[in-house]
Amino acid sequence: MTAHTESLAPLTQEQENLFWSKVDKNGPVVREGLTPCWVWTGYVNHGYGSMMIKGKNYRTHRLSLFIIKGIDVHEGEACHKCDNRACVNPDHIEIADRKYNMDECVSRGRAKYKYSCGVFHHNAKLTDEIVASIRKESDGGVSRGKLAKKWEVSLGTIKDIVHYRTWKNDSTEGVRSSIPKK
Ligand SMILES: [Zn+2]
């Protein structure tokens, strides 16, 4: 997977036209209260729409945010409210407050995957307090498996916490430093 984190340059009209030519605005309504998904009908990579600009591939939900709202989010900092990765409807794309986003990823035990914020679970959020409690309980002899179950996170997440690979000092930095650069 190639990912580019450099800032986006403004698209030419031609590039924008090409972009919109591959968007189907009559996509499914995946959840009550959401507008229809705008489905990317072009090339899809790992479930995400992908468009090549000057020889580089960019995720199309990122391009959509950039074209419509002028916001350039780095990839991995935007999540789909609709869980539809190929969707480019800006109303469905939640620009993650970085900490929140990472909390979500970690809570799903998937922080090692930079991009997999597709699924939102609002009931399994880790906080500094929970992390402290996990470490305390682990020190006290509670098994990691039990802790994973209790907090609805993966065993890997518990291990990372116990070994201080994540949540080292302040939560955001700790989590971020656990993400591979490339
Ligand atoms: Zn959508």
**Proportion in β-strands:** 5-15%
Our count of helices gives: 7
How many domains make up the 3D coordinates? 2
- Beta strands, count: 7
* Main sheet: strand order: 3-4-5
**What pattern of helices and strands is seen along the backbone?**
HEEEEEHEEHHHHH
Q: Oligomerization state of this entry?
A: single chain
Shape: elongated
Q: What composes the largest sheet? A: 3 strands, antiparallel
What ions, cofactors and ligands are bound?
A: zinc ion
Whole-angstrom Rg:
18 Å
Any idea of the CATH class of the largest domain? Alpha Beta
Assign the structural class, choosing from mainly alpha, mainly beta, alpha/beta, alpha+beta, or little secondary structure.
Answer: alpha+beta
Mean pLDDT rating:
76
Q: Could you please say which CATH topology of the largest domain applies here? A: Homing Intron 3 (I-Ppo) Encoded Endonuclease, Chain A
